[in-house]
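HUMAN: You are asked to prepare a plain-text protein record giving the amino acid sequence and the backbone structure tokens, both parts labelled.

ASSISTANT:
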Amino acid sequence: MAQTRKKRQRKRRGTQGGRIDAKARRSRPRSREEAKAQARAKRQPAPKQDLPPTWRSSFIRGAFMAAVFVVLLTIFGNALGPALVLGVFMLAMYGVGSYYIESALWRRRERARIRARSE
């Protein structure tokens, strides 16, 4: 008697260029140890030092420092208007300066990390 149902086809893994990956990617881990390793890898985000600096983080840091600067100026007897104007100026200075200092330090750490890998 002939088979009535078609056999289920597997997904074709090859690329358009004809390359086939050596190891198939699986959505689920095959063993308990593999599942634990996968969970540990997901749980640990990259350390902040490994990430390059962003303008957003620099301006948040600059806004905090400018706010401290404005509060100190008003505490020591300056009027609020001129203190706010100086605060905006300090925000621009702290934000830009913070970004470039952080970029220089990150590049230095990155060069050291690459040098350590190659040795």
Q: What stands out?
A: The mean pLDDT is 84. The longest helix spans residues 80-118. The helical segments are 32-43, 55-75, 80-118. The CA atoms of residues 58 and 96 lie 7 Å apart.
